[in-house]
Automatic annotation (TrEMBL):
<feature type="transmembrane region" description="Helical">
    <location>
        <begin position="113"/>
        <end position="134"/>
    </location>
</feature>
<keyword id="KW-0249">Electron transport</keyword>
<dbReference type="GO" id="GO:0046872">
    <property type="term" value="F:metal ion binding"/>
</dbReference>
<dbReference type="GO" id="GO:0051539">
    <property type="term" value="F:4 iron, 4 sulfur cluster binding"/>
</dbReference>
<dbReference type="InterPro" id="IPR017900">
    <property type="entry name" value="4Fe4S_Fe_S_CS"/>
</dbReference>
<dbReference type="GO" id="GO:0005886">
    <property type="term" value="C:plasma membrane"/>
</dbReference>
<feature type="transmembrane region" description="Helical">
    <location>
        <begin position="155"/>
        <end position="175"/>
    </location>
</feature>
<feature type="transmembrane region" description="Helical">
    <location>
        <begin position="201"/>
        <end position="221"/>
    </location>
</feature>
<keyword id="KW-1133">Transmembrane helix</keyword>
<protein>
    <submittedName>
        <fullName>Iron-sulfur cluster-binding protein</fullName>
    </submittedName>
</protein>
<feature type="domain" description="4Fe-4S ferredoxin-type">
    <location>
        <begin position="432"/>
        <end position="460"/>
    </location>
</feature>
<keyword id="KW-0411">Iron-sulfur</keyword>
<keyword id="KW-0812">Transmembrane</keyword>
<feature type="domain" description="4Fe-4S ferredoxin-type">
    <location>
        <begin position="463"/>
        <end position="492"/>
    </location>
</feature>
<feature type="transmembrane region" description="Helical">
    <location>
        <begin position="348"/>
        <end position="370"/>
    </location>
</feature>
<dbReference type="InterPro" id="IPR051684">
    <property type="entry name" value="Electron_Trans/Redox"/>
</dbReference>
<feature type="transmembrane region" description="Helical">
    <location>
        <begin position="7"/>
        <end position="25"/>
    </location>
</feature>
Length: 514
């Protein structure tokens, strides 16, 4: 079986390498027709003139193609800006559309083949490794040797994986024109689902969903015998596949706006942006439903569900970010920082992002209803800052790229404004708590080690105190790894939920009256 798994790893690594070099193969040639098909009519005349030197010329790589494009197009815009001819500056970014449309390489000729040797091969290799895992071993958590693993303990493999993820996110968010071959490769799937060619976001959603499904299967193997972990994993796989990936594409096919029904403001920070509201208002009854549903989730869904079940109902069962963290990120959960200092930073950061999101949204809505008389286009600047710093850099690059370096919940713990909102409700008005049968605790520290949110669970267990923390996402892993059955995730009466037992003797503590 070992050889079979090793073969799986080899296949996976080869396909990952192919996936990584694919963006750099093939040549590029801009034709007049391509330009006409990819550029807005009002820009066509200028673009034809500006890009004339490169039309019909074949470039041997996307670097050469983009170098020439940036020289010509950037040169034009710079000249207009220098002359203060702001109305002539072209703000639209055509780099991705033109690079994709100009690709001549083998991927555009045969996308199915390249999809097969990268993605399908990669999935097969990963499953060959995952499916035989823990075969013949008893049920229960297997964390043997985790701190000796280069991949799971910030060794060379972990650093390389983190670097790859960080680079992928940077290119995806800010230089998608260099990923056009990968996007071309998934074009047939996008065409089949929505009737539209793929964008870099379709590629991202596709890879993201596959990662959750494949690593979700790994969760089934690793947490075999634990019903809570199994059902929770099925839930995140389902919500990602059905609600975040398939349904929005099908809606586009039906000429409706792309919409993820389970994404809630302020995580879905653009929900109240003017173009989103206009899109929903102008999309008939279903569009109005999207708007009302989104508002109901914010105003009623979050407080009610969190009151009854804690924030786990969203963070560990529904959310896409949580879904990736709980599946792809599971091997790295022990890397979260448990220090009090990290807890302090966490509280400042996450609530700071929540305040930023609320202020930005408040100003956006006020501006919208005053027909932009209040702040003009200034809210766009605010959106750009938030989108760059929080939506892309924090949630994407740091949130996922740093899995192998800082643990799997960096974004959920330090940055997600929705987690902050859910956490406030969970801390002050919820039936959820983790109860501790403290007299049984042997202080092994497994619970704290594997808490992905950096909660020092053992500190509470040793004192027989319930764990009531705004950051707890109710993943249940602390309870699963406890060798003494000390911890139990419960929804019960609010009374006695927060209990302080300063000195523990057996299961009944004593309190000192000073
Ligand atoms: S305290 Fe337990 S349930 Fe909560 S996040 Fe940590 S490991 Fe998960
Ligand atoms: S894992 Fe269980 S026994 Fe070990 S410190 Fe935590 S609560 Fe105590």
């Amino acid at each position: 079986m070992k050889q079979f798994q090793q073969a799986g790893i080899v296949i996976f690594v080869i396909s990952l390498l192919l996936f990584s070099v694919l963006p750099f193969i093939g040549s590029y040639k801009l034709e007049k027709e391509t330009l006409a098909a990819s550029v807005k009519t009002e820009h066509l005349g200028v673009m034809e003139e500006v890009l004339a030197p490169m039309v019909g010329q074949e470039f041997s790589s996307n670097f050469a193609f983009m170098g020439e494009f940036n020289r010509l197009f950037g040169g034009y815009n710079d000249a207009m800006k220098a002359n203060q001819q702001w109305d002539k500056v072209i703000w639209d970014n055509y780099a991705f559309a033109l690079t994709k449309a100009s690709a001549l390489g083998p991927v555009s000729q045969n996308p199915h083949f390249y999809l097969f040797i990268t993605v399908v091969f990669g999935v097969v290799g990963a499953l060959m490794y995952i499916l035989p895992m823990y075969r013949g071993k008893p049920e229960g958590i297997k964390h043997d040797g985790i701190f000796f693993s280069s991949m799971k303990s910030k060794g060379l493999l972990g650093i390389l994986t983190g670097t790859w993820l960080i680079l992928f996110y940077i290119v995806l968010y800010w230089f998608p024109e260099y990923l056009t071959n990968l996007v071309l490769m998934v074009d047939p799937i996008s065409m089949a689902l929505s009737g539209n060619p793929a964008s870099q976001w379709f590629l991202y959603g596709f890879v993201y969903t596959l990662a959750i499904i494949v690593m979700g299967i790994r969760m089934f193997r690793k947490y075999r015998g634990n019903a809570y972990q199994t059902i929770r994993t099925v839930s995140v796989m389902f919500f990602q596949l059905a609600f975040a990936f398939l349904l929005p594409e099908i809606m586009v096919l039906m000429n409706m706006p792309w919409h993820d029904f389970k994404n809630i403001w302020p995580l879905d920070y653009s929900f109240f942006y003017d173009y989103r509201i206009d899109g929903m208002v102008n999309a008939g009854a279903l569009g109005m439903f999207m708007l009302i549903w989104g508002i109901i989730l914010i105003v009623l869904g979050v407080p009610i569900f969190t009151y009854f079940f804690g924030k786990r109902w969203y963070c560990s069962w529904v959310c896409g970010c949580g879904g990736l963290a709980e599946t792809l990120g599971d091997p790295y959960r022990q890397l979260s920082d448990k220090s009090v200092k990290a807890w302090k930073i966490e509280r400042y950061l996450i609530h700071g992002v929540l305040v930023f999101a609320i202020l930005m949204t408040g100003l956006t809505i006020a501006n919208y209803f005053t027909e932009f008389a209040l702040l003009g286009q200034a809210t766009n600047q605010l959106h750009s800052i938030y989108g760059f710093a929080i939506g892309s850099a924090f949630a994407g690059v740091v949130g996922t790229g740093f899995y192998p370096l800082m643990g799997n919940r960096v974004w959920c713990r330090f940055g997600c404004p929705l987690a902050a909102y859910l956490g406030i409700v969970q801390r002050f008005k919820s039936r959820f708590r983790i109860t501790t049968n403290g007299g049984q605790c042997i202080s092994c520290g497994n619970c704290s080690t594997y808490c992905e949110m950096g909660i020092d669970v053992r500190w509470y267990a040793q004192r027989g105190q319930n764990i009531v923390r705004s950051s707890c996402v109710g993943c249940g892993v602390c309870s699963a790894v406890c060798p003494r059955g000390v911890l139990k995730l419960e929804n019960a009466d609010e009374e006695g939920r927060i209990n302080e037992k300063p000195i523990l003797i057996g299961n009944n503590s004593i309190t000192l009256n000073a």
